[in-house]
Fold each of these.
Amino acid sequence: MSRIHEALKKAEEEKLERTSAKPAVVPSVLQAPLTEPLIDEAFMHQPFMHEPLRHEPLPHESLRHEPLPHEPLRHEALPHKPLRHEPLPHKPLRHEPLPPEIKAQAVPAAAVSAPVPANLDQRLTWDLITARCPQGPWKPTKGMLFLNGNIHDQVGTEEFRTLRSRLYHIREKRPLKTILVSSALPAEGKTFVSANLSQTLARQHGRRVVLLDCDLRRARLHESFGTRCEPGVSDYLRGDADEYSILQRGSMENLVFIPGGRSISNPAELIGNGKLEVLVKRLSELFDWVIIDSPPAVPVADASLIGRFCDGILLVVLAAKTPSDLVQRARQEFRNMPLLGVVLNRVQAGSTYVSYYYGAYGKPGEKAKD
């Protein structure tokens, strides 16, 4: 160890002599144990030769912003010519009738507003009816009371007079002019009651009566009167006929009949489109009584649709045939509508009611006054 120290010390002395410097102090690190690293601290603290960086700017030429040559925009107006409005050639529209297969197509009631007749501004008058609707040769069937000429030999004449009197009693208490005659099921006699009730009302002096066949599914009322079926209610609702063309007059001066018209496949849609209501309202302004024959109430909804704009409902029931539950069901079809009463049809001649009636008031063959 001592030899190494001595060699190091001698090397330091020679170095100092060459540099003519003051003898350096031997660092204490030389006296440290050999296990520690030998580091020349003086060498570690000597600064490195450092030259500052020279920042020489690059040759710079100032940019010259020279404006581009500007010329003002020249607005040259386009040559203007006034527009010439030349009318298109006009040709009158040609109204050609539609083929029958197109006319028969149904229009949904929800998409159709209530149509207004073309001659709504022209008020229905009795003079126009008598002028435009001449009396026709009706050939009534045997079941018609007054039109067949033998009115006193038939059972039921007095019953219709009684029904007429009761209707006038109701009329004294509230407005009553438009009457709907219906039944629960088909073939219960509603057409028979409608036809004979309208004749009984027209027998009174000065009373004008109009009878409508609104059973558009099975129009049969014209057969009882022995007249034509077309044009009628269905033709009017489809727009193929006006009010005057569907009115018919027979031998009775104050009775006017409107048949059902041509057969159709969509009666409920036509009845519900509002045009029938307009027709009934216009007729009620001229006639004293408006009697409407309708389809049965239980199978279809036509009768309940018509009953909404009528003053009263007469329900015809077939004696000893119509089930009571169906009568109640028919009554429910006309709920919230005024029910005038029930007409019991085809009562047996030997029943207690009929025997008492004719025994007290005379035989059917005796003459009676209206």
Note: Residues 100-121, 354-370 have pLDDT under 50 and may be disordered.
Amino acid sequence: MKILYIMVGVGFSGKSTLAKQIVEYKNAVLVSQDDLWFEKEKEWDLSLDSDEDWDRVLQISKQRVRENLAEGESVVFDHVNLRHNHREELINMAKSYNARAVIIYLDTPIDIQKERQIKNKETKERHDVKQEELDDAIKELEIPEESENVFVFKPETNLESFLERLPQ
């Protein structure tokens, strides 16, 4: 059965790193909003980092999720998905393609997130996130509840065991 793995967490929680591991382990397709941002950055002149630009990228990301599900692929959607209604939309999208939705919440302490943010300022491995946006995301986060059949990943979680427990 095809699966839509829905990553949930604020910036620097480890979503992208875990998403890549899931893609490899489960032979799924990665749809990453950050990757799409870098892909479209010069083409669309996204240097302003506006909410409208992020929404544009999000809409294309969702379209790519739909396309891959329609082709029978399992998909890992690497985006913050902070609010319950965001996840509900994705769950309904999965259902419309006869796919199962799996919520993966990265429960990463703020001090670890801040360390990763500081390191990223040096390495520039990913898109930088302004501190006020991170603070807003933390406030906006609606932690997934058990009723969402959530799989929780913490920094101390054994990766291999976690990947084995995920549905395929």
Note: The chain has one domain: 3-165.
Amino acid sequence: MLAQEGNQPRYSPDGQRLSFTLRDTGHGQRALNTAVFLVPAEGGERTEFRTGFLSSSTPVWSPDASHLLYAGSDLPSASETVHFQLSGASLGGASWYVAPVSGGPPVRIEPSAQFASFLPAFPFPVAWLRTNRILFSYASGDTTNLWVATLSPDNRRIVGPPQQVTFGTGRITDASVTSSEAVVFAITASRPRLWDVPLEKRGPRDKSDPMAVVTNHDFTYWPSLSDTGKLAYLALKSDKFNLWLRDLASGKETLLASVEGGGNINRVSAYIDRTGTQVAYTTTLESKSAIYTIGAGGGPSERICEECGQVRSWSAAGGVMLSQERVFEGSKWVSVRINRIDVASGRKTVLLEKRSFLFSPDLSPDGQWVAFQDRATLADRREQLFVAPMSDGAPVEPERWIPITELKYFDANPIFSRDGKILYFTSDRDGFTCLWAVRFNPATGKPVGDPYPVKHFHGSPRHYSWYPAFSVGPDRIIISLEQVQSDLWMTQVTEEK
């Protein structure tokens, strides 16, 4: 064993050491809050490579093993940054840095004018070639390919335009380079799809395998179940979301709306009411969000409110929605609010607020409790579940929050059962991201007994890089999980002329 829970390993060119990244604490979710460590190649005591950033990732060695180049960021991990490593997502706010292994301050690498166009979806370094070029991965649409960028002799700037190395249509999720600059890389096909987990009448049991919900789309997310066998969900194609409604009995599907969100799953959402007659959805255009409703048969959409966050729950009676909203001061994210939204008037009132991480609110069927997830600080890698009494006036202070789970694991996305006596959630408490539940007393707002597993996802399908969104219905759970298939390929990086 070289490093338990280590990630992104890279041997130094002299073969003496290994660099890797590691979350400081916590488990499970592939968060971007990572630190770089070094360990002898044959094992031994690890040392942290000090970078001065909240998050440092994808370290690569210089050809003489004297420096490390890495992506550094002062932003915490967020649920919207769900892809990790080389999966093609943006590492928001990050830049490339280089620092001596022996110690010393990092130097930010200044991008060339041509390289600056890559920065909106920040590329991840893969290898530092002996020709003083950096091999990196870059995502464009549904594909991720390998490119090379040339470093200046003083390692402080990118010089000239990057050159594309691979031209495939899949996603390159990892790569490694030999001393002769042969590149071995993995092309991974992974799309979240909807899966049906039946709930037995006497309680959930982890027996049968989940069944795929067959649709005409290969990227389906944000499932929401009504009491009448209707399923609302979002399907992504070419960075565009569409809102669909499926009748689970007949299999009939209806396209309801096109949803603005820039291909980002955390800028959109979809929720159907209990009767299956109305669907609410969130759009985000140029950082401005809005919540709309549309009839299950289609037709014009009705705007409920603007600048009120992302809808995350709809009351059993249909008159109240809950949303989560990030609060910014300038470009700095400073807090998160959970809002109560009156559907008829669109009036928004703040129910909960905290200057850290506060997400995934769900309203109990009796309308008395709000379940949500929280972490102690922005930099924490663990999260726990709470409930708070519902309020239509002043925000509920943290002193009145009731813990449902302990701050030991990554417990997330609590959702009440239809009778309000069970809270379902995802957790990594067994080393995998699986579906768990805890019994709940609606009279006291406290958990009854210990959490228990509902469904394990230790094989395929399983949660890999997309957050496992799910919905609880009267007799089933629909959850978005990935099936991952990967092949290895090899190519040669040509000499620079």
Note: The chain has two domains: 7-180, 190-484.
Amino acid sequence: MFRLVPRYLIPLLLLQTLPWLGFTGAARADLVQEVTAANQKLVEAFATGKAADVAAQFATDGELIDENGVVFQGREEIQGVLQQFFEKFPKSTLAIEADSIRPLGATMVMEEGSRLVTTADGSARARLRYAAVRTKVGNDWLLASMREVNDDAPPTPYEQLQPLAWLVGEWVNEGSDAVVNISYRWSEDRNYILGEFKVVTNGVVSSTSSQRIGWDAAQQKVHSWIFESEGGFSNAVWTPSENGWVLKSHSTLADGQTGSATVVLSRQNDDHFSFSVNDRVVGNVVEPNVTLNITRRPPVAQK
């Protein structure tokens, strides 16, 4: 949504050291009530979806500067940018929560708080911090200027890993010589997806490994680590593809050899996916490609 940056806001901020000088308790309550009512008028105007109604909440010479530094001066220009917003996001709603309201004189106040803009279907929400200067014209407290800053918290690791949430559950690959049992679950803090692999040969567990899948904030990519029971370990960076993910893996074996591979994870549906291990090199030896077709285990029947 729009961002407003007042040209004369910084000098006015210096006046905050003496905000309520000369205001009695009753006068303070009246001022807060009047500005709160002005905010409610802005919310109601926003709900109409009419740019002119929202622009009327600004002073005639009010100022709006968007996030790109474009200045919208006066109601006509402000109405124009609002019109573009409502055409793109019709029936959006606005909620306002004022944290503080302070006088800057008899006819001017400084207001700070947060606003939440939500699209009609609820699919998009933008939380903004704001600092507004209002001026009293007649009985109305109009917006002379304001500044808004995106206050959305960055996505959590849990939110970043949602494209892989379908992995959670029990899986199995039944090959001709071994069975691979796979289990995925969320960590207790829900910041990682934890995987456990067990290779069963002739009814006996021949090897195990543990995997931790997390969000790498520095690279802005999914990152995973595997620790094998024999002492080896590997890590991989995940890149989304059309039908799944491509993993660039680097490993260190228990005997000190290093290896690398390109792993392609392809999701067929909610109950089937495959791992294709390609370009596999261990030490100086090129190993053959391997493909595992994985099936979700059905839920265990409760007795």
Note: The first helix runs from residue 9 to 13.
